[in-house]
Amino acid sequence: MADAPLVAGIELGGTKCNCILARGPDSIEDEVRIPTTAPAETLAAIEQVLAGWSGFASIGIASFGPISIDRDAGDYGSITATPKPGWSRTDIVRRIERRFGVPVGFHTDVVGAALAEAKWGAAKGLADIAYVTVGTGIGVGLIAGGKPVDGLTHAELGHIRPVRIDGDDWIGNCPFHGGCVEGLCAGPAIAARTGTRAEHLPADHPAWDLVAHGLGQLLHTLVLTGIPRRIVMGGGVMVGTSHLFPRVRAAMIDSLAGYVPLPEVGLSRYVVPPALGNNAGPLGAILLGAQALERG
Amino acid sequence: MADAPLVAGIELGGTKCNCILARGPDSIEDEVRIPTTAPAETLAAIEQVLAGWSGFASIGIASFGPISIDRDAGDYGSITATPKPGWSRTDIVRRIERRFGVPVGFHTDVVGAALAEAKWGAAKGLADIAYVTVGTGIGVGLIAGGKPVDGLTHAELGHIRPVRIDGDDWIGNCPFHGGCVEGLCAGPAIAARTGTRAEHLPADHPAWDLVAHGLGQLLHTLVLTGIPRRIVMGGGVMVGTSHLFPRVRAAMIDSLAGYVPLPEVGLSRYVVPPALGNNAGPLGAILLGAQALERG
Fold it and tell me: Which UniProt keywords apply (chains A, B) (predicted)?
């Protein structure tokens, strides 16, 4: 761990930002939490925290999205079109780079969580994994060979359209797609469908079968990308509903129907809860910073 | 081109194998076609062709699948479970490596085609693309940063389950999934559904709307992986049915419904036919060989 670089990590969240100065989970030197308000105010507060730290070799930022991760694009390093008031087209990376003059890594919060879980958490030792968060939205982070899977943009696989269980014709609540996986299985969708918040919905409520089926379709698709050696599922809907894990896994296996007959996919440890809890975000930011340093 | 290494490429297909000695499309030194029969006979014939060549620095193999591309797996470099008689669990790479003692690159035919189209064809200059073949099956090759997107295995996204147009309840003909994209939109599915082979089906036949819708769902999913800057669609069903391209693209745009509002995705050149024709396979093998040489 002493060999790992000292990195300033920023988890930029919708309601709060976690700033952390660390080399890894066992060598955290400082941690500061800042509320997410208007961009100018929030970013100034983050910069003030970082200015009080010294010795970090790089900075990593794991952000809510959508963000521009295309290094050749004019808007690289910014938040693009978000419903969050004031944050659309907010430059993050170039501002931070100018201020601190060290390499800056930048990716989604879910890719950060994937990196952290693959390095220190529930997928330790695996270089190819998917991290799925099921909360107010559904996000997917993909890493392959220990690096984010990047191309035109970041994954948004929570918005695929799943086939439905016969007789389930609820239209869903995604403003774009209605019944995409997020529009059927995220926390607000469960609340809209049942009138009850997910954390208060009893395990034997029939809506859980529909949620497990939709999430099973998402996992079917993730397996068919060929990438994940393990799928880590976190977020408010998964955490505290441990009955959901075996049901989602069974729905995935049922849907794959024997296709991709690799032993890994059949194991119960193929679909697991995160191990790092609230630390996945900030530790993911540390890894994004470390990767930026390697890139130079 | 003179700087590119001389590579022996093998496109291992279901009915024939193309062996090619080349540095690229403008410097093909030899090309030999061999029928695909039993594994021992076919591989011996390939080895005989390669033994007659000299000066190649590496070998690339673009193969029909499914194949094991996991370098840490015991069965790396082999064809795994194929319905093709005699070919299941056939080692390819280790046998060729032992015989010729040069680095061997190995991937699917569709990843080979993606590499070739990105280097010399319809996606020239783009490092992040998807190649989709719609023929007797539906295969997807994904490359990011100019390299295959690898993890546990190769992509098999032709087997995702698409939502259906209201009233379309044909069960599909995939032996695993019934109505997955392959089971609804591949050549044999079109023939089973309509009683007419795809190449004889008139452009105004209503089945084409159902096929375009299913392929549009596949492209919706590919966009949401975040990877492709362009999608190249080849294979017997796409080639010769040029009316299908605008319909598939429209179905994709309709399904995405304004999500991922990147200009690239809205352009007609986002979904294009291949430019290399039958040469994509052998030239993809050349690139797999060149990448194996870089890896050492």
Answer: ATP-binding, Carbohydrate metabolism, Kinase, Magnesium, Metal-binding, Nucleotide-binding, Transferase, Zinc
Q: Indicate where chain B has its CATH 3.30.420.40 domain(s).
A: 7-112+277-295, 124-272
User: What size, in residues, is chain A?
Assistant: 296
Please tell me the CATH code under which domain A7-112+277-295 is placed: 3.30.420.40
Residue A260, φ and ψ in degrees, nearest 5: 55, 70
What is the least distance, in Å, from the CA of A143 to any CA of chain B? 9
Give the per-residue pLDDT at A82: 85
Q: What pTM was computed for the model?
A: 0.97
pLDDT for residue B84 is more than 60:
yes
pLDDT tens-digit series, residues A115-145: 999 999 999 999 999 999 999 999 999 999 9
Where residue A2 falls among pLDDT bands split at 50, 70, 90?
low
Q: Is the pLDDT of residue B92 over 70?
A: yes
Is B161 an 8 Å CB contact of chain A? Answer: yes
What are the pLDDT digits (tens) for B31-43?
999 999 999 999 9
- Taking CA atoms, B102 is separated from A152, B54, B95, B166, B296, in Å, by 34, 12, 12, 55, 9
- CA A107, chain centre distance (Å): 10
In chain B, whose CA is at the least distance from the CA of A220? B160
Chain A, 61 to 100: residues with Cβ < 8 Å from chain B are 81
CATH number for the domain running over A124-272: 3.30.420.40
Interface membership of A154 toward B (CB under 8 Å)? yes
Separation between Cα atoms, residue A115 and residue A290, nearest integer Å: 11
List the structure tokens of B112: 């080979």
Q: Say what the ipTM of the complex is.
A: 0.97
